[in-house]
Amino acid sequence: MGIIRTDKWLDESFGDMRKVEDHILEAVQSQEQALIETLKKTGMYRPNKRTRAIFEQMKERAIWDEVEGYFKKYQKEWDGPDIPIFLFPVAMEGLRLFRPAEKRKTGLAFVDKLFLFVSADIEKKELEALFVHEYHHTTRLSVLNERMENNLASSIVMEGLAEYAVSEYCGTGYLAPWTTRHTADDVRKRLKSNYVPNFELKRNDPQHDKLLFGGGSMPKMGGYEAGYRVVKDYAEYRGLKTKALFAHSAKDIISQWQDLAAQTD
Question: By the 8 A CB rule, do 221 and 178 touch?
Answer without folding.
Answer: yes
